């Protein structure tokens, strides 16, 4: 088992090298294609980069969660926002749900496959009529003997095209509101389960985001995750990890924006000097660094709190909102320093800019994050 910080740094170096060899040469083409190949998941798994904090009895390394989050951070820092999110959904959301709530049989059935990349994980909450207001979900799962009959649809599901397993929220008691919601482990290869088109987005192009449809799908009753009707309670327990993952992606991207901008402003000349010599450039970059350091302190503290089981729901909401707001501000301010070249997809800052925007929306919008924080301050 890896344990010391030097091990983490070694692991980080290895992952950077892996990305240089296996991601960098192809990433631009995947962005154009609007999806990365399915085999990338197998490659990530074979090289030991998926779900690394899962216990060894389920195939993981059993290392602390900061090892897992480092991979999300490094992918974002390298400018692969889509890859960072894909890994985050798989390793930071799907696997932990199963580990925390699943039965022993469910853990043995699914976690080793998520670790190896044999199965790609996704989380299916959002529906066309239910985004921020998740209580409004209409998907239903009605128990009928030894299986649930699943009907309905989801939208905006990350990893949705490649997913083999979706943790899906559905009403096992459609008459009830929140108390009727349960979570199911749904194998996407079951009869009646269909993936819609790969949705076209303004950024994170190679991240497959999909609609999902299910029509009388028979989900074995033993694939109920946790207790029936407890879906919202489980969401509350697991959202801090999801939101922490988003904050970590933001942190990586913030440093990535600074990396590419520092290089550019030292090279680009205007009025007979490098644009890095203009006070505006220097102050903009200095402010970005100051904001990056403040974000880093908050994010690292939140990671430590998570690892000590002390990251509460309002703090996780706060760090998600803060880090993603800073990310968007920095991507915008630093793109400006590239002039027209910043608007060209050939320049990585443009990808940092478009990839940043969704971070304030998914995982709960930043307005909802503020509601969560305000609720703690003021009550309902
Ligand atoms: C690229 C992408 C990937 C995604 N991945 C996933 C995924 O993997 N799984 C998944 O389940 N979902 C996913 N989502 C869905 C995402 O979580 C939702 O889009 C998000 O929660 C917002 O829901 P909505 O789009 O329905 O917006 P709405 O809920 O319709 O919100 C619209 C606006 O109203 C505001 N608003 C709503 N309620 C309130 C309120 N009470 N107070 C103040 N303002 C409010 C919102 O902040 C927002 O500004 C993804 C979305 C995208 C675009």
The percentage helix is 40-55%
Uncertain residue ranges: none
N→C terminal distance = 45 Å
Gyration radius (Cα, Å) is: 21 Å
Ligands = flavin-adenine dinucleotide
Number of strands: 10
Mean pLDDT: 97
From the spread of the alpha carbons, the general shape counts as globular
Structural class: alpha+beta
CATH homology superfamily of the largest domain:
Butyryl-CoA Dehydrogenase, subunit A, domain 3
| Order of adjacent strands in the largest pleated sheet | 1-4-5-8
CATH architecture of the largest domain: Up-down Bundle
Q: In sequence order, what are the helices and strands, one letter per element?
A: HHHHHHEEEEEEEEHEEHHHH
Q: What report would you give on this structure?
A:
The protein is built from 11 helices and 10 strands. By secondary structure, it is an alpha+beta fold. It folds into 3 domains: 5-119, Orthogonal Bundle (Butyryl-Coa Dehydrogenase, subunit A, domain 1), CATH 1.10.540; 123-229, Butyryl-CoA Dehydrogenase, subunit A, domain 2, CATH 2.40.110; 232-378, Butyryl-CoA Dehydrogenase, subunit A, domain 3, CATH 1.20.140. A 4-stranded mixed β-sheet has the order 1-4-5-8, with helices on one face. A 4-stranded antiparallel β-sheet has the order 2-3-7-6, covered by helices on one side. A hairpin with a 2-residue loop joins strand 9 and strand 10 (273-274). Helix 7 packs parallel to helix 9. It is globular. The N and C termini lie far apart (45 Å). It binds flavin-adenine dinucleotide. Residues 122-217 form the Acyl-CoA oxidase/dehydrogenase middle domain. Pfam families: Acyl-CoA_dh_1, Acyl-CoA_dh_M, Acyl-CoA_dh_N. Belongs to the acyl-CoA dehydrogenase family.
